[in-house]
Amino acid sequence: MKKALLAAAAAVLVLPAAAQAQSMFTPGTSTPGVYVGIEGGGNWLLNSNNYNMDIGYAAGGVVGYDFVGPRLELEGVFRSNNGRGTANFGNVFSNVSGRIEQLAVMANLLYDFAPGATITPYVGAGAGIAFADQSINGCSLCSTQFAYQGIVGIGWNVDRNFRINLDGRYYGTTNPGAYQNNNITAMLGMTVKFGQPETAAAPAPAPAAVAPPSFMVFFDWDRSNLSEQALGTIKQAANAYKTKGSARVTATGHTDTSGTEAYNMALSLRRANSVKDALVREGVPATAISVVGRGEQGLLVATGDGVREPQNRRVEIAIQSTTPMMSDAEYCRILAQSWRSYDRTGAQGPGPQAIAKCDAGAYAEGIPTLQRLLTDAKVPYPPRS
C-alpha cells in the first residue's frame, strides 16, 4: 500500500511537469526572416603531437535567414588557445609556450526540429575557410585551410524576435602545420530576427447584450390566484416599467406537466391574465401589456409527464424598452412637409385637403391620405418610430 501511495504521488508530480514540457516543445507560429547574432564560449583544442593545449575561448557573430525549420547562415568565429610544446630550432629541441589562434568563416546549414516552439532542438553542419597559426610560436593566422564543423544544440525562442542558442560543436581544419587542428567548442549565442509581424492585440470583447428586466411569479398547483409574495414581485415589475418611460411588458404563463395539454394551455393563459390585471392595478397601462400562454412548453425544470414541479408553475414578466412613437401632430407635420417639397404648385387636391385635416386635428384621416399620396408619388417618408 505504501509503495502504491508513493507511486501515485510521483505521478501527480510528474504528469503536470510532462504536460508543461510537451507544451514548450510543441511547434507554434513562426515566420521566415533575416537574423543576426553574437556568440561566445569555451574552446578545447585537442592535444596533438607534442602540443599540450589549455582551454581557450571562441567568439564570433552570425547573419542568417530562417526558412522556418531550415536555417542558412554565414558565421565568423575567432578561436584562441594557450599551450606548451617542443619546438625545433635547427635540430635543437626546446620546450616553448605560446598560443594558437585561428579565424574561420563558415557557411552553416541548420535545422530546427520544433520551429516556433518555446524550446527547439537543432542540428547543423558547416564548411568554410580558416586562417590559423602554423605552430604554437609561429606566424599569426598565416596558414589558410579548409574548415568544417558539426553542431548539436537547443534554442530558446524568448519571443518572435529574440532567441538564445546553446550548442556544442566539433570544428576542424585540414593540417595547418605542426599540429592536428581538432576542436570541441561549447557556444552560447543570441540572435535577433527582423521583420517579424507585431503581435496582434486581442480584440476587445463585444459588449454583452443587455437582457430586458424580467420577473417570475409562481403559483400553487392548479391555481391562478396570486399570493402575497407574487403581488410583491408584480409591484417590483411595475416600478421597473415606470423607470423605462416607454416599454412593452410581456406576461408569459407556464404550467407543470400534470394534466392535459389543452387544460394546461388554458391554465397558463389564466395565470398570465391574473398577472396582467395586477400590473394594471399597479399603474401599468393595459395597452402596454401582452399576454402569452405556453402551457407545458418552456419548462424551467425538465421533468417527465405528470410531474407537479413547483418551479414550472409560473408567469415570466419581461419588460422591453421601446423607441417612443412620434405624436400624431409631429408625424403629420413631417408628412405635410414631404408633400409640399414634392408638390410646389399649391393646387387644390387630396394633398392640401389631407394637410388641412391634420391642421384641424383629424389625424386619423389626414395621416393615411398623406402616406398613400407619398407612396404613389414614390416619395420616401420616415417611419413613425
Characterize the structure shown.
The chain has 385 residues and is an alpha+beta fold. It has three domains: 24-193, Porin; 214-321, 2-Layer Sandwich (60s Ribosomal Protein L30, Chain: A), CATH 3.30.1330; 328-376, no CATH class. Helix content is 26%, strand content 37%. The protein has six helices and 13 strands. The protein has helices at 2-25, 228-244, 261-281, 328-342, 350-359, 363-376; strands at residues 33-45, 52-53, 55-66, 70-88, 93-112, 119-132, 143-157, 162-173, 182-193, 214-218, 247-253, 289-293, 314-321. A hairpin with a 4-residue loop joins strand 4 and strand 5. The longest helix is centred in the N-terminal third of the chain and has 24 residues, at 2-25.
Relevant terms:
single chain; 385 residues; alpha+beta; Porin; 60s Ribosomal Protein L30, Chain: A; eight-stranded antiparallel barrel; four-stranded mixed β-sheet; 6 helices; 13 strands
H/E series, N to C? Answer: HEEEEEEEEEEHEHEEHHH
Radius of gyration: 45 Å
How many domains in all?
A: 3
Number of strand elements: 13
Estimated structural class: alpha+beta
What's the assembly state of these chains? single chain
Mean pLDDT: 83
Helix/strand layout:
Layout: H1 2-25, E1 33-45, E2 52-53, E3 55-66, E4 70-88, E5 93-112, E6 119-132, E7 143-157, E8 162-173, E9 182-193, E10 214-218, H2 228-244, E11 247-253, H3 261-281, E12 289-293, E13 314-321, H4 328-342, H5 350-359, H6 363-376
Helix pairs in contact: 4-5, 4-6, 5-6
